[in-house]
Amino acid sequence: PAPGTGAVDPTWAPTINNTVRAVAISGSQVYLGGTFNVINGETASRLARVSASGTGALDATFDPVINGSSVTNLLATGSRLFAGGQFAAVSDRTVAGFAAFDLTPPTIAITSPANGAQFDFGQQVTVAFTCEDEGGVIGSCIGTQASGAALDTNASGTHTFTVKATDESGNPAERSVTYTVAAAPPEPT
Asked: What does 116-179 look like in DSSP terms, one character per residue?
């Protein structure tokens, strides 16, 4: 269909087993609240996140457990999602009908190795990176090697160093840099 005609997008069609009472949009994600407990054949307890593009696939990484009958109101601000309704708890926290969710992924700073760095074969380099989260607490921050450990420079060529982080709300982040290790010096004969 042509843009702006009002025609329904035939490919975006999440299958929901009960009523949707609230919708909020944040970036490329659509948040749904209601009385449902299954979307696209997967468990989604009254609050879910689906993609705004494609088929409307359920994002299984956003999985709050709503203890109550319905989510009736949603507001997405970019960094937060606010939900209201008839529920007494979300996952393991008592919330009495109103809850806020952190939508901001952690930030990752890799200071060593620097992106594009070049090292001699066997050069001693210490890995350094940090993970922070403005909306909550870091749950995990894991690099290809631990911060403070020695970087592996015993293989020549181009390598990738990656750090993955998740905050306590389950928001993931990943950052990678590449570095090059020069060929090993020739062995004396």
From this structure: TEEE-TT---B-EEEEE-TTS-EEEEEESS-TTSBP--SS-EEEEEEEEEEETT--EEEEEEEE
CA distances from 17 to 9, 39, 85 (A): 20, 7, 19
Tokens at residue 99, please?
Answer: 């809850």
**What pLDDT does 170 receive?**
79
DSSP assigned state of 69: E
Long-range contacts of 91-94 (CB under 8 A, 24+ apart): 91/64, 91/65
The string of pLDDT tens digits covering residues 57-93 is: 999 888 888 999 999 999 998 788 999 999 999 988 8
